[in-house]
Design goal:
binds pyridoxal-5'-phosphate, three-stranded antiparallel β-sheet, alpha/beta, seven-stranded mixed β-sheet
């Protein structure tokens, strides 16, 4: 079989590959704990289910306008007003099959071959591959002071005449860090001065710790949306725990939205009408579902932090948002793929290697599962890595025997 050089160079999403590995092990009856999960466990909001069921019941399941159902766009206009204090028009919005497709459509629409896109490490696994898929070049900025907070100077140093965009994800997958208001204000101003696109992936926007308010980039620009290169990405996957519906959207100036719609019209036409109806239901339904999810995740986050703070040798920068954290395991092993593989084989715990997020020696741990998964999962990691721990333990009647890294 002959495949293109480009396709051959693209990595599989490591998080999705690990989901599959965990599923196979579980189907064999193995007591796997999945600390790699990338989705909340809550059922979809009733309002979403009723709205999609009502659509299904009409039997009128057809194409929608490429950019999305007008009624869903209206709900997104309202979301923008309520959450960004910004009035946008339906023409500033395009709905896609998940924020993943939204991001890909953006990059496809703005990147010429060799254009560079700046990513802040640790970054979400899909950004570099998506940039490469449109013949662009990902350029990583890694904070050198051991924090997950890059400085503006670090970014400026990487900017060249080829720099086309910067992607910011706050709260950040995998670190859980929320970038400061000052930092976002500096980046917005810098991008405006240089004429660089600023892509804000706000998909975890509301899943934050009590009292934390991720920056609203619009607060720091005086530009009219039509003159602006600010692009906001959002969706229902994380906000409402509706990952399976696959609905994301972009808010940006009309000209860019029109280009994205042209691209999308040739690829997927439009996101599924059933899912669009569900997203509309979620956006217009009671919003206490989001607050309940946020509180549940906050509870899990506290347990995860407690567990990791009691883990000898592991260094943790406390997450303030998302449902992930990104502890540093270099005291045990610097090769994160080797470490993650060892922990899956010996302790039956799924973790995601830091190298996939651009930072070696770390693992991404998710606390989106149950409290039991968080506590038992981290306890098993401690057992597997502690040289003084007993050589074998029992999970029910399954014996786990320790080997050495
Ligand atoms: C940072 C980030 N952006 C975008 C996405 C894609 O979300 P969706 O399910 O809407 O495609 C994810 C999903 O994990 C994510 O973590």
């Amino acid at each position: 079989m002959s495949i293109s050089q480009l396709a051959g160079s693209i990595k599989e999403s490591s998080t999705l590959a690990l989901n599959e590995k965990a599923r196979v092990l579980r189907s064999k009856g193995e007591p796997v704990i999945h600390l790699g999960v990338g989705e909340p466990k809550n059922p979809a909001p009733i309002a979403a289910l009723l709205s999609s069921a009502a659509k299904l019941n009409t039997g009128d399941i057809k194409y929608t306008p490429t950019g999305g159902l007008p009624s869903l766009k209206k709900a997104i206009v309202r979301y923008m007003e309520e959450n960004y204090n910004r009035r946008v028009d339906p023409e500033n919005i395009i709905v896609s099959t998940g924020a993943k497709q939204s991001l890909y459509n953006i990059l496809y629409s703005i990147i010429d071959p060799q254009d560079e896109v700046i990513l802040l490490a640790p970054y979400w696994v899909s950004y570099p591959e998506m940039v490469k898929m449109v013949h662009g070049v990902p350029v990583m900025v890694t904070p050198e002071d051991g924090t997950f907070h890059p400085r503006m100077e670090d970014i400026e140093r990487q900017v060249t005449s080829y720099t086309k965009a910067i992607i910011i994800n706050s709260p950040c997958n995998p670190s859980g860090v929320v970038y400061s208001q000052e930092f976002i204000s500096e980046v917005v101003q810098f991008c405006e001065e240089k004429g660089i696109y600023l892509i804000l992936d706000d998909i975890y926007q509301k899943l934050v710790e009590n009292g934390v308010r991720p920056a609203n980039a619009y607060d720091y620009t005086k530009k009219n949306l039509e003159d602006s290169k600010l692009i906001i990405v959002n969706g229902v996957s994380k906000l409402y725990g509706m990952t399976g519906f696959r609905i994301g959207w972009v808010v940006a100036r009309r000209k860019l939205i029109e280009t994205m719609a042209k691209i999308q019209s040739q690829i997927t036409s439009n996101a599924s009408v059933i899912s669009q109806a569900a997203a509309e239901g979620a956006l217009l339904g009671v919003q206490s579902v989001v607050e309940n999810l946020r509180l549940e995740i906050q509870n899990h986050r506290e347990v995860m932090i407690r567990e990791l703070e009691a883990f000898n040798g592991v260094r943790l920068i406390k997450p303030q948002g998302t449902f992930y954290c990104f502890p540093d395991f270099r005291a045990y092993e610097t090769d994160s793929i080797k470490l993650s593989k060892f922990l899956l084989e010996k302790a039956l715990v799924v973790t995601v290697p830091g190298i996939d997020f651009g930072m070696e020696g770390h693992l991404r741990l998710s606390y989106a599962g149950s409290i039991k998964d968080v506590t038992e999962g981290v306890e098993r990691l401690k057992w597997a890595l502690d040289p003084k721990a007993p050589n074998e333990i029992y999970i029910g009647d399954r014996k786990l025997e320790r080997d050495w890294l």
